[in-house]
Amino acid sequence: MEIKVVVGSKNPVKIKCTQQAFDKVFPNHKLTVDGVSVPSGVSDQPMSDKETFTGALNRTKQAKIDFPKADYWVGIEGGIEDSEAGMEAFAWVTILSSDQQGQARTATFQLPPKVQELVRQGIELGVADDMVFKRSNSKQANGAVGILTNDLIDRTSYYEPAVVLALIPFLHSELY
Q: What's the pTM?
């Protein structure tokens, strides 16, 4: 059986992690995973858990509207939560099918003070990473998580478990 998945982003990291997660969850299916450019409907750098979740869900819903002939639609949105404990980065993943919804959040990690300072000035995390770590377009490669873990965890491997977790309601629809 063939499964068509549409990711609400052209970012190669988001497409690759979705492909890898769906390959694990549906190993006996032929998969087609395509990325499409859709708006998140939130700021370029979501600054709260709620705004980040909203961005992921907006991407998922818009991908479904724009490309209705798919089996699953996926939205992935990275965000930041700033608190007394410091600034943490994370992402939300939302997945829709014709009759089901799943969602999951990645683990969080704390950003270094220099990056926090730039983000608080209104600079998007990927740009702040590039400035501090003297990189170019890191958000479409290893990202902050890759840079800070010395590539022990890159963005693809960071997002992939959350995509798998967001698929739980589809694996056990009788429970959801």
A: 0.93
